[in-house]
Amino acid sequence: MGENWKAVVVAFVVAYAVAAVFVFRYPSPFAARVGGSTKWSKRKAREATEEEESFPEPMAKGDLTVEELKRYDGSNTALPVLLAAKGVIYDVTKGRDFYGKGGPYNGFAGIDCSRALAKVSLDAKDLNDDVSDLYAAERDVLNDWCRKFDDKYPVVGKVLGGAFDKS
């Protein structure tokens, strides 16, 4: 080592102390802020937000006609948000940010949106339950969406009078 090793050690200690002050004094800009305190977990922040939100009572199980389903399109916050895929109705109210009024997927709410899910489309012409001309890959995509909905949202019932009604 050279003659300046003491100066290098002192500079290192000072830099370390300054860095420590910044780390512990100022909150991270990447941490979620919940209730005035810094939380390091995005999951905890999301859970706290969900607790603050109020949702209507879960939809009672029961089948709905195509016309009745339209009432649950997310435009009335007092009602649950419902969508159907392959004739199965899901209560997606907890996903109101996505499926409710103003959400990016609001077009799916209140209808059987099987075709749009299969084609991964938001086009108005695809917002229906006609899956008669889908390719095998599109049917696989639709089945993947149905598995995702089954895992995430409660099933309310079936769509009566739709393309998947076997009665």
Description:
By secondary structure, the chain is α+β, with helices and mostly antiparallel strands. The protein has a domain at 64-160: Flavocytochrome B2, Chain A, domain 1, CATH 3.10.120.10. It has six helices and six strands; from the N terminus they run αββαβαββαααβ. A hairpin with a 2-residue loop joins strand 1 and strand 2. It is elongated. The model is unreliable at 32-40 (pLDDT under 50). Its main location: endoplasmic reticulum.
Work out the helix count: 6
What's the total count of β strands?
A: 6
What is the CATH topology assignment of the domain at 64-160?
Flavocytochrome B2, Chain A, domain 1
Strand order in the largest sheet: 3-6-5-4
CATH architecture of the domain at 64-160: Roll
CATH class of the domain at 64-160: Alpha Beta
* Spatial shape: elongated
InterPro entries: Cyt_B5-like_heme/steroid-bd, Cyt_B5-like_heme/steroid_sf, MAPR/NEUFC/NENF-like
Domain Cytochrome b5 heme-binding: 64-160
GO molecular function: metal ion binding; steroid binding
Family: Belongs to the cytochrome b5 family. MAPR subfamily.
